[in-house]
Design goal:
Elements (H helix, E strand, L loop, with lengths): L1 H59 L3 H9 L4 H12 L9 E8 L2 E8 L6 E5 L1 H5 L7 H5 L2 E4 L4 E7 L5 E8 H16 L3 E6 L1 H7 L17 H6 L7 E7 L14 E8 L6 H69 L7 H34 L7 E4 H18 L2 E9 L3 E4 L1 H18 L7 E10 L3 E8 L6 H4 L10 H6 L7 H11 L3 E5 L2 E2 L5 E2 L2 E8 L5 H9 L1
Parallel strand pairs: 11-13
Antiparallel strand pairs: 1-2, 1-6, 2-3, 4-5, 5-6, 7-9, 8-9, 10-12, 13-14, 14-18, 15-18, 16-17
């Protein structure tokens, strides 16, 4: 018992260790996967951001020759402007992108020379107030590198040093036309599942759309796998991106300055819906694999425990059956030796013969029980139901059982009461299986419910339970069965603690065979200890309840079978 207790403690600690280890691994796996998923989602957002920015930059690059020519082409600045107007003006290769090209002399910044096409020609604006209203001022930085400004009216000003010393060239660029007629169609080709719209900063602020000038989505992304799997993702359907108009060709980074806010809206659910679902499914499959591995370990531990228990039960069975076989064999040998040696007087021959015959019957019964167990195991493994059902009359059936079992009970100083008045006249069932179940339950009560010298009563009750069930109960007023023992009394070779310690006779197969025969009859066998009386009170002792289907018979058709 001490070894068994230690074994159970070890198994429990091992299973607990596996559960704790799986919990820790699962938690770490979830954290790792969540970080990886957030990073993957951030890369997806970033790829959309980069695609939009670079598409706008690529469209804007077509104007680089214009800017280069206005700054470096030789000749008078007026001729250079007129030449570039023919290429890039409203009727040139790219239309409706700038309204005018102007230049001024830094020595006389109040005079602005503006060109608005061949029809309008050049005009000289000598208005200090107008020049002062321009969104820039003449400074050293502009003369060296040029600058870009946004007038917040749909236009941007590109100011750069001209091809002549001391000259500044100013282009009033039409942002709305550039983004709607050039950038938007290119993005639509690259992102067909998205819709893009443009708005200014004030509109973005009113709609409370998230955006960043520099990329940094990681701090706002959350990964919720169950919501994604169930289709309740809270990921945004649209994101806001600031698309700069000027793009640094050397560093490949957007420059601060004029631009437009783009709202990228997904037409098929969340922006990263497909990716989130894929990541969530991968996480779920990973957790299932982890749970499967852990479950496999736990099943392996339980199977090892069960195998150890079966080996222990088999050892107990071998010891028990050896003891049970040794006793009748010793009696037979002793009686045979006495008879052969001539020390038995003739008048006691019958007694010795009866003794030998009884011990042989006892040996045969034990061997039959073991063989029945082997056959039962193979039948259960094959899934075969009992098929020897025949018409049965209950009156002679219980008379025979009462005669047989009363003798056994009286030998052990116990009383047997059999109450079958609640039964119908007969039924179609397996009489041998039913007799074996009741016999095993009564023998189990006689052998184990009391000590050998104690008195007691075993009551067998049979009745019809409407509409189609037969109920048989075998109850005693003995010591009862402990709750922890009740879970195992139907296991093969199992005997409770008291039976093992008292070395009571028995192989531990009776209740197992009875429960399996009940299954083959299509019924159930259960135990109550303490017993539940009719009025609901609990009483000492044990009650076994067998419930099997009742198949009535047609008396006219089956009378010959009953008579036979």
């Amino acid at each position: 018992m001490r070894n068994k207790r230690i074994g159970r403690i070890r198994s429990g600690l091992l299973i607990a260790s596996i559960v704790v280890m799986l919990s820790v691994i699962g938690t770490l796996q979830h954290r790792w996967f969540k970080r990886a998923a957030v990073g993957e989602l951030a890369r997806s957002y970033r790829s959309i951001y980069t695609l939009v920015i670079r598409t706008a930059a690529r469209e804007f690059q077509r104007f680089n020759p214009l800017f280069d020519a206005l700054q470096s082409e030789h000749g008078a600045i007026e001729a250079t402007v007129e030449k570039q107007w023919l290429l890039y003006g409203p009727k040139g290769a790219v239309v409706e992108l700038f309204d005018s090209i102007s230049w001024l002399d830094t020595a006389a910044p109040q005079e602005l020379h503006s060109y608005q096409g061949p029809e309008a020609g050049w005009s000289l604006i000598h208005d200090p107030l107008f020049v002062a209203s321009l969104p820039f001022s003449v400074s050293g930085d502009i003369l060296k590198e040029g600058m870009a400004f946004d007038d917040y009216q749909g236009n941007s000003w590109f100011v750069m040093p001209g091809n002549e010393k001391g000259r500044l060239v100013m282009i009033r660029f039409n942002n709305d036309a550039f983004f709607s007629k050039h950038v938007e169609p290119a993005i639509a080709l690259a992102l067909p599942e998205f819709r893009i719209s443009w708005m200014d900063f004030e509109e973005m602020r009113k709609r409370n759309l998230p955006f960043k000038f520099n990329w940094g989505w990681d701090d706002r992304i959350s990964f919720r796998p169950f919501e994604s799997l169930l289709g309740f993702s809270k990921a945004p359907r649209e994101i806001g991106i600031f698309v700069p108009l000027v793009y640094d060709r050397e560093d490949q980074h957007p420059d601060p300055g004029p631009g437009r806010f783009a709202v990228i809206e997904s037409l098929n659910g969340p922006v990263t819906g497909d990716l989130e679902y894929t990541l969530a499914m991968n996480w779920f499959l990973g957790m299932l694999l982890l749970a499967g591995v852990g479950g496999g370990f736990i099943v392996l531990v339980l199977q090892m425990k069960r195998l150890s228990l079966l080996r222990s039960q088999e050892r107990e069975f071998v010891a028990s059956i050896s003891h049970e076989l040794r006793t009748p064999l010793s009696v037979i040998r002793s009686a045979a030796d006495n008879l052969s040696s001539g020390i038995v007087p003739p008048e006691r021959f019958d007694t010795y013969c009866s003794l030998i015959s009884g011990q042989v019957d006892r040996l045969g019964g034990m061997i039959e029980e073991v063989l029945l167990y082997s056959g039962m195991e193979s039948r259960l493994a094959a899934g075969r139901r009992q098929n020897s059902e025949r018409p049965l009359l209950f009156a002679p059936f219980f008379q025979e059982l009462e005669h047989e079992l009363s003798q056994l009970a009286s030998e052990y100083g116990k009383n047997l009461e059999l109450r079958s008045s609640g039964l119908p006249r007969g039924a179609v069932t397996d009489s041998e299986a039913l007799a074996m179940i009741i016999r095993n339950l009564v023998i189990n009560a006689v052998y184990h419910a009391w000590k050998r010298e104690e008195e007691g009563t075993v009551i067998v009750t049979a009745r019809l339970q409407v509409p189609r069930s037969l109920v048989f109960t075998v109850e005693d007023d003995g010591r009862g069965i402990e709750p922890k023992e009740q879970r195992r009394i139907f296991d093969p070779f199992y005997r409770d603690k008291i039976s093992r310690e008292a070395q009571e006779q028995g192989s531990g197969l009776g209740l197992f065979l009875a429960s399996k025969r009940a299954l083959l009859l299509g019924g159930t066998l259960r135990v109550e200890s303490p017993r539940i009386l009719i009025d609901g009170r609990k009483a000492s002792g044990t009650k076994f309840v067998l419930v099997i289907p009742w198949v009535p018979y047609e008396e006219e058709e089956d009378e010959q079978h009953f008579n036979h």
